[in-house]
Amino acid sequence: MDITDSAVWFSIGIVLITTIITRVTRGRSRFEPACSTPPPPVVSCGSFVGLLHTLYTKGLRVMILDQYTKLGSVFTISFFGKNVTLLVGPEVAEHFYQGLESEIGLNMLGFTVPMTGKDVGYALDAATRCQQSRFQTDALRPSKLRSHVGPMLQEVEEYFAKWGQQGTVDLRKELEQVLMLISGRCLLGKEVRDNMFGEFFTLFNEMIDNGTNISNAIFPFAPTLTNRRRDRARAKISEMLTKIVRSRRSSNQAKDDVLQYLIDSRYRDGRPTTESEVTGMIIGLILAGKQTSSTTSTWTGARVLSHSTCLAAVLEEQKQIFKKYGDKIDYNILLEMDTLHRCIKEVLRMHPPTPSLFRKVHKSFVVRTKERAEYEIPKGHIIASPMLFNNNMPNIFKDPDVYDPARFGPEREEDKVGGKFSFTVFGGGRHSCLGEAYAYMQIKVIWSHLLRNFELKLVSPFPEMDWSKIMPVPKGKVMVTYKRRSLAST
């Protein structure tokens, strides 16, 4: 299945998801006074057939470009009485990222509920979810991240010490494993990492593999074989984590990890977090981190190793940092790795963790385009911010199909050309991703170590995108040859 075939299935999945959500919420809608502001232009049901043809033959970006050229930056795709309104470009994105959850909901992520549980996240009301998000954000704030660098480095060094003097590996598989080890150490703690991590790793992969397909998003609670496998794995994970939470509380143990912080967290009314809430929140953090960090780490390797200029630039940066600090790595030194940071950021622009973000409109609002046209987005619409397209707009990102990390350098700063919503891979405004700093830190720790200690070469074809997942990943193996070397001697 090539990218266009896969994109078709991704879009068909979104069609079905929005159809189901609209049916569920239709009974709750109430009459709102008419607004004199016109609604967005609509792609009719007849034109929808043409959309699918363009999608199949030319791809998702071209499909959106065609409608963007014809209709402008705000338009609605209507099919079978359902409406999805696309907000294309940063000029029309403010309410999408700044709107209150009472106005635009995040309930498009309900498929995660069977994995995180009914006591956390998108199974709850907005107020409770907001408090739980605060617990998670506080646990990953920079002042706490500093203490994680040492354990991360230890896991990375020990893992890659097992590589031989030279060889060939599947980079995607290797990075996935080392990132799970980091999660085990920094998020879950030593009980899981030292005593049961192999079992936990296997179960978590089984849960994700059977819980993040398009079919899961459409029918998350259906009695399908994949859902049953997902649920069995999740039940075993929950049992493992519950025992740890219970043990720590009964023995008054205090650990320096994210799990402990969530155990100690309290709601505004003074209520402590429950075992099931802690379990659900930590699963959510690992789920988000694994999908973003492992995928982005792999794309970073594939892109940098395919561009000799970028590879030379990141190697030179590591040499200069090594001359300045020796083999020491800490939080502040990671912040000095600007070239590596830009390489990762450019990967996120070209390969965002999800091709589009979606919200459900609970209260009608008016959006104004850069051409000063105004449209009312009606209550009940699904609104979409298509990152895969927004990240490739040539009026913001020069030569968007070219891997060019320098576009984020101080001389260009293309991510600021269109304002604060020009680059929204980690969300924006009140809906920013809480794990952004943590993700960058993990990837920098891994790639600074690899660049310093190995000569690497991509030997398989540059990977395609696998669109069969809700959060697309590199398709197939990403084979890399390695040879040990010391950066200090080069």
TrEMBL record:
Any one GO CC term of this protein is: membrane
Report the enzyme's class at the first EC level: oxidoreductase
The record's comment on protein family reads: Belongs to the cytochrome P450 family.
Keywords of the record: Heme, Iron, Lipid biosynthesis, Lipid metabolism, Membrane, Metal-binding, Methyltransferase, Monooxygenase, Oxidoreductase, Steroid biosynthesis, Steroid metabolism, Sterol biosynthesis, Sterol metabolism, Transferase, Transmembrane, Transmembrane helix
Tell me, in a sentence or two, what this protein's role is: Catalyzes the 14-alpha demethylation of obtusifoliol to 4 alpha-methyl-5 alpha-ergosta-8,14,24(28)-trien-3 beta-ol.
* Name of the molecule in the record: Obtusifoliol 14-alpha demethylase
UniProt organism field: Panicum hallii var. hallii
Q: What is its EC number?
A: 1.14.14.154
**So what does this thing catalyse?**
a 14alpha-methyl steroid + 3 reduced [NADPH--hemoprotein reductase] + 3 O2 = a Delta(14) steroid + formate + 3 oxidized [NADPH--hemoprotein reductase] + 4 H2O + 4 H(+)
Binding residues for heme: C433
Under the heading PROSITE patterns, the entry gives: CYTOCHROME_P450 (PS00086)
